[in-house]
Design goal:
Largest sheet: 9 strands, mixed
Order of helices and strands: EHEEEHEHHHHHEHEHHEHHEEHHEEHH
Radius of gyration: 21 Å
Number of strands: 12
Oligomer: single chain
Structural class: alpha/beta
Length: about 400
């Protein structure tokens, strides 16, 4: 039987798109450190232009690597992810596991959208629609299954609505939970760290959906630049102290990510946060109280909520809002004491630090200066609500969805 390492770090690089060159850069960063007797760094990368997929156990400077050629694999297929995890569990067992889902910066190109639409038998479809959809937030989805579900809707008008209302994000979140459920079955234990080297995934609904399957999550509220994570710095931190607590590693990733962009003078906004998923209820419980307070104060509260939204940081085509910043604006702008107190309680729950839900948070750039580490779905009444939001675990078990429905009806 293969002896267990202390860590196995799995990186799933969905690079069969315009991010293929970025995948090569990140593999090179990993090779500056490479695997050791205590750390397995394994990667699966899908490349564009018919280059196929390969699996690697990353070695220092690439010396002695024996990549496994997989042929053409669909990196957007959830089963491809779970197969990678199963292969890892069988070949590189460890005491602790990290899974990094990599799809940062770009999105589905029109040609890829066109292929998915045709394979889904999209009703009333013309190739022009693929170009239209690739210019919407739908292009940022991780999983092909999410796109297929939307492309299967009966008319271009319905598909257009779902391209802009956060439906892709809702579907992705459900699929991510399904993927991690299968991954944990293969590993025989929860992930110690789930990393999202992808856009917009530091989101409360995502954290709630994945919390049964992972202990900590590191992700960004904002879109990620093509450079993504600085894997050389991340791997070096782990090699230098392979016994460090997972929470400390997650904090290092947050800080090294932001530092890497400050050092190169990146002018855009960057965010990163690490969450202790076992403490997600410390945030959703006060959010339940805020939701109930707002419902009780409607319709008067509607204008105050909308004003707070307009003044706070938002992402994903104005469907995801930074929770803390929204609550700050709401607490200063409301005339209702119950709403004000509830909003302040949510902000207090989102303060970062040890033994809290957000254990570390960092950002750079004026657009995100008030961000605190987590977004929430808060689509304004001028936009349709996602028809799939109610499928999320958080929507089914807590009070935010009733508030959203009442807000839209007010």
């Amino acid at each position: 039987m293969t002896s267990k390492a202390k860590w196995t770090f799995m990186v799933y690089l969905a690079g069969d798109n315009n991010l293929c060159p970025a995948a090569d850069v990140d593999l090179k960063e990993m090779r500056t450190v490479g695997s050791t007797k205590d750390l397995n760094i394994v990667a699966q990368v899908d490349r564009a232009e018919g280059q196929g997929s390969r699996r690697y156990c990353i070695q220092c400077n690439g010396e002695g690597e024996q990549p496994e050629n997989l042929g053409e694999k669909d990196s957007g297929d959830p089963k491809t992810v779970t197969d990678f995890v199963t292969w890892t569990a069988e070949n590189y067992p460890a005491e602790r596991y990290a899974l990094i889902l990599w799809n940062h910066g770009g999105g589905w190109e029109p040609s890829e959208m066109d292929h998915i639409a045709r394979s889904a038998g999209t009703p009333q479809y013309s190739p022009r629609e693929a170009t239209e959809r690739s210019a919407t937030p739908l292009a940022r989805t991780l999983f092909r299954t999410s796109l297929q579900k939307i492309f299967s809707l009966s008319s271009p008008a319905e598909r257009a609505i779902c391209s802009d209302d956060g439906s892709g994000h809702s579907l992705d979140t459900v699929e991510l939970g399904n993927v991690l459920h299968q991954a944990v079955k293969s590993l025989g234990q929860p992930l110690d760290l789930l990393g999202m080297d992808a856009c917009l995934m530091s989101n409360l609904e995502v954290a709630y959906q994945v919390q049964p399957y992972a202990k900590y999550m590191v992700a960004s509220e904002e879109n990620e630049p093509n450079n993504g994570w600085p894997y050389d710095a991340v791997m070096r931190t782990l090699v230098d102290d392979v016994d460090q607590p997972t929470a400390k590693l997650a904090e290092h990733i947050v800080n090294k990510y932001i530092k890497s962009y400050v050092e190169i003078g990146y002018e855009g906004a960057v965010t990163q946060a690490a969450c202790d998923l076992s403490k997600v209820n410390e945030v959703v419980d006060p959010l339940d109280k805020l939701a109930d307070a707002l419902v009780a104060y409607l319709p008067e509260a509607a204008n105050e909520v909308w004003k707070a939204q307009k003044n706070s940081a938002r992402f994903w085509h104005n469907t995801l809002w930074d929770v803390s910043h929204f609550c700050k604006e709401l607490s200063t702008g409301t005339s209702n004491k119950s709403v004000r107190n509830a909003a302040e309680d949510v902000r207090a729950a989102l303060q970062s630090g040890p033994d809290r839900f957000i254990i570390a948070e960092a950002h750079n750039g004026p657009r995100v200066e008030h961000c605190a580490g987590s977004t929430i779905y808060l689509v304004p009444p001028i936009t349709n609500m996602s028809r799939y939001y109610e499928h999320l675990d958080y929507a089914q078990k807590h009070r935010w969805l009733p508030f959203l429905k009442a807000y839209h009806a007010a």
